[in-house]
Amino acid sequence: MIQSATRGFRLRLFSVAAMALGACVRPAHSDIFERNARLSRGVNFGNVLEAPKEGDWGLTLKEEYFKLVAEAGFKSVRIPIKWSAHAGAAAPYAIDAGFLARIDWAVAQSLKYGLAPVINIHHYDEMFTDPANHKARWLGLWKQIAEHFKDQPEDVYFELLNEPNSALTMALWNQYLVEGLSAIRASNPTRAVVVGPSDWNGIWRLKDLALPSADRNLIVTVHFYDPFHFTHQGADWAEGSAAWLGTKWGSQADQDAVVKSLGEAKTWGAANQRPIFMGEFGSYGKADMASRALWTRFVARTAEKAGFSWAYWEFGSGFGVYDPAASKWRPELKDALLGDVIGIRPIAAHRARAVGRRVWLDGAGMAQGVVVTGAKGGWTDLRGRPVVVE
After folding, report:
1. Which terminus of the chain, N or C, has fewer Cβ atoms within 10 Å?
2. Is residue 220 a contact partner of residue 274, using CB atoms and an 8 Å limit?
3. Dist. CA 176–CA 172, nearest whole Å
4. Are 145 and 157 in contact (CB under 8 A)?
5. What is the β-pairing status of strands 11-13 and 386-389?
């Protein structure tokens, strides 16, 4: 039994059935909802290793960045990786040894500073324009990645493919994801794998996502950039975005739209008993900072109340929470992400009973075991089961 470091709250379950579930024999690996809770609050190291070459987009990873992220209070890092730029074009699609060593370094730095890394396949653009002719290579990459990292702790997470879109339709992606998971499961039978729907991991596509029912070690990801005219105003890669400059955010209608959209993901997750990871959300630096901070705080807190883990997009580029040129955090965004918690006091630790297990809460109030979040009308665990504070 984990002993609490401070006095705390004791939680009692309403449901006898839920308590019975908690009494079941625990598997050798952690419950997938617990592993999603481990991701907690994260940040993307974007525009680095998913560039054609690290540094091409203005940022190179440094050990100090991992240290800064951990000291700030983040619990995980999502590391986008463009493996396709560093592997052979023909079978066996060998990954460049030097590049693989660089990823090893990034994973090691994450673990050194207590961060859970999510490594993915990112910007494999040919998978979206010519999926049939690139599927074998994509599978070949995953076979190598999975085999290489198979002995890493469960704090290392895989993500099948960032934002399937265009020619990689939902119907086709439902087929491919099963093959991708098979490639991983050959060497990593219980590894937590992140997978999302097509159409840029859009929430509206969750209803069409077909996952293998027997694989319960999956975390479902969605990305959230709504309203797009606000989050991408002035972004030179978004056609017409110059006309969106000056768009502000924060009305009741704006907030209601966020609650509705994330609520759809929560409903889907509960119905399908799949944990949700909001793997990307952020607003571009051309928006006014007051609106950016308000949007960021509201989206993050709404996601937490829904029981999601999340990773902000991104660390130190156009959306960045950190300014590498000035070597300092952007305080408005950092505070919006980490400065408060809904429903849980930010105490050092407390003991909780959720589904028959003891869990720790860290200084930011986020669970290291089974997360417990505040909700209208009461408290719930990450699965949405009711608990009561005594």
Report:
1. N
2. yes
3. 6
4. no
5. antiparallel
CB 137 within 8 A of CB 93: yes
Cβ atoms of 355 and 385 closer than 8 Å = yes
User: Beta strand 322-323 with 76-79: parallel, antiparallel or unpaired?
Assistant: unpaired
Domains in the chain with CATH codes: 1-30+353-390 (no CATH), 31-340 (3.20.20.80)
Short-list 343, 341, 352, CA closest to 378 = 343
First-to-last C-alpha distance (Å) of the chain = 19
Q: Is the pLDDT of residue 69 over 50?
A: yes
Strands 352-354 and 157-159: unpaired
CA dist., res. 218 & res. 205, Å (int)? 17
Q: Give me the pLDDT at residue 339, please.
A: 86
Can you tell me whether residue 32 is helix, strand or coil? helix
The pTM is what?
A: 0.82
- Greater model confidence, 49 or 17: 49
Mean of the per-residue pLDDT values of the chain: 85
pLDDT of residue 384: 52
Which residues contact residue 134 at a Cβ distance below 8 angstroms, ignoring those fewer than 6 apart? 124, 126, 127
Q: What pLDDT, in 10s, does the model give residues 159-177?
A: 999 999 999 999 999 999 9
Token digits of residue 268: 């889907």
Closest CA to 369 of 387, 386, 382, 385: 382
In tens, the pLDDT along 284-338 reads 999 999 999 999 999 999 999 999 999 999 999 999 999 999 999 999 999 999 9
Burial class (CB in 10 A: 0-12, 13-18, 19+), 257: middle
